Amino acid sequence: LRVGGLVRHHRLLVPGAAAACLLLAIPASAADATPGAPGVGDSYYPSYGNGGYDVSHYDLRLKYQPTTDRLEGTTTVLATATQDLSRFNLDFALDVSEVLVGGKKAAFTATGDHELEITPAAPLDKGRPFTVVVRYHGTPSKVEASGFTAWLRTPDGAVAAGEPESAWWWYPSNDHPLDKATYDVSVAVPDGTQAISNGTLQSTSSKLGWTRYNWRSAKPQATYLTTLAVGKFDITKDTTASGLPVINAYSKDLGDNAGAARASVERSAEIVDWESTVFGPYPFEALGGYVPNVPTGFALETQTRPFYSPRQFSRGANASVVVHELAHQWFGDSVSLKDWRDIWINEGFASYAQWLWSEKEGEGTAQELADYTYASYPADDPFWTVKPADPGAENQFHGAVYDRGALALQALRNKVGDKDFFAIIKGWTAKNRYGNASVRDFITFAEKVSGKPLDELFETWLYTPAKPAASAAKAAAV
Ligand code: ARG
Ligand code: ZN
Question: Which residues, if any, are the signal sequence (predicted)?
């Protein structure tokens, strides 16, 4: 009572006092400032991301020489301290030559294979914006962190693409989807070579034998969705019906896959237009795709401009993979996971988008594909032991996250009916636009929109390590 009385009295006498206090710059003394955590607390990847600050913008100014794989440059990070901060980490694996915090030289040391620990000359006050400049260089394909490199060499350049790891080998960051930021990526490459990144190409300029490409991605973007490709590309430029710039890039060295790659990726605008009618407004300012001459086989939903390995097109055109990666622009890129355990909110939805596309194209309805998928794995197949809503780090990209993940959405659609199902989908992308969400958040949201209890359905389809009874994914009581 006494304390409550005091607080009430204080508020009555000094309206707005609480707000005023927040604005006062109370310097953090060395005594109360503490180190930011070296990880953001992810359940699968405890050392990924960092605590103590929040990044708003990354500015990368790089130079890359394909013949030697030498990368050098400077990244400027704009951040705000979320605690009185005595020191903090960035996730990074290349060699650092200098760090400035707020324009002053800061001490730094590499701790672990992807941690750069930075101690500013003076502690940083909670709530205060600060700037970190990191100068660095390296040969990224030769740098192993966690036992590998996500920097892929090509005959004429290189590509940074990987999930969840890809930033460590080319820029220092708070490497977790919880801390999204905007980006300017400026890369100088030898004349005749191109540099591709996210968003829009603001300008190019050439001097002294080097051409600089200035890319901007203006909406919040997770670190692993920031990409760079250097090589010899054919670049196509167009605009969508609604006026969005479309930029696609194809390695000049795609061999027999060149035609199929173009026949697929050139449909990006058409696919985004269709997906917008199903998922809601496209969240970003540009779109496209790029196909570098990498030897790998995967694809990745790098923001605004997915990455496609040429092998995706080795059996002919593959619009389905384009549908998948562009669906991720809503599911994964705009609405990002909170914890890597929540990967189903990315992959389940991007996979279900492929079934919806098939339905639209008259190549089998989602229900037919669900029945086919369900029947393809016998009850004793290990496929059913992976729980899509918590697959474990080692199974993060297991087929079950994708296929059983899509089955869960078909089960939901059957349970709530098409009207509510598509209202859930559109409502979800609107509610969480540019944010983060968990599997639990989705279940709660679907229950709210449909007015139906859905715990049991999701328990069966996402959380049980066994094959569910077939009837659950069939048209059930609506
Ligand atoms: N999110 C990507 C996709 O399904 C998966 C990337 C898997 N990563 C990898 N290096 N194989 O489109
Ligand atoms: Zn995917």
Answer: 1-30
* Four-point Cα dihedral 421, 425, 430, 431, nearest 10: 70
Structure tokens that stand for 197 in this block: 């990144």
Beta strand pairing status for 299-300 and 287-291? unpaired
pTM of the predicted structure, to 2 decimals: 0.93
The ipTM assigned to this model is 0.95
Positive or negative, the CA dihedral 368, 374, 377, 383 is: positive
CA-CA distance, 58 to 180, in Å (whole number)? 10
Beta-carbon contacts of 436 under 8 Å, excluding residues fewer than 6 positions away, are 177, 178, 180, 335, 336, 337, 338
CA 100 to centroid of chain Cα atoms: 27
Q: What is the dihedral of CA 434, 438, 443, 446, to 10 degrees?
A: 0
> In this structure, what token pair is assigned to residue 82?
């979320």
The beta-strand segments (E) located in 47-143 are 53-65, 70-81, 88-91, 95-101, 104-105, 107-110, 115-119, 129-138
Contact 275, 327 (CB under 8 A): yes
CA of 230 to the centre of ligand 2 (A): 23
163 touches ligand 1 (CB under 6 Å)? yes
Ramachandran bin of 422, using left for φ above 0, alpha for ψ from -120 to 50, beta for the remaining angles: alpha
Find where tokens 């590309």 sit: 233
What does DSSP say about strands 287-291 and 70-81: parallel, antiparallel, or unpaired? unpaired
Give the containing element (helix H, strand E) for 307. Answer: strand 307-308
- 103-109 own/partner pairs: CB under 8 Å, 24+ apart: 103/131, 106/132
What protein residues have CB closer than 5 angstroms to ion ligand 2? Answer: 347, 350
What sign for the dihedral angle of Cα 75, 81, 83, 84? positive
**In 117-267, alpha helices (H):** 258-265
What tokens appear for 96 in the block? 């650092």
pLDDT in tens, 373-410: 999 999 999 999 999 999 999 999 999 999 999 999 99
- 3-state percent helix, strand, coil for the chain, nearest multiple of 5: 35, 30, 40
- 54 contacts 88 by C-beta, under 8 angstroms: no
Q: Whose CA is nearest to atom 12 of ligand 1?
A: 300
- pLDDT for residue 137 is more than 60: yes
Size of the chain, expressed as the number of residues it contains? 478
Type of residue found at 446? A
- Whole-angstrom distance, CA of residue 135 vs CA of residue 98: 5
Q: Give the whole-angstrom CA distance, residue 440 versus residue 404.
A: 17
pLDDT of residue 176 exceeding 90: yes
**DSSP state at residue 449:** H
Of 76, 198, 68, which is closest to residue 133 (Cα–Cα)?
76
Top mutation candidate among 151, 152, 163 for ligand 1, by most atoms within 8 Å of CB: 163
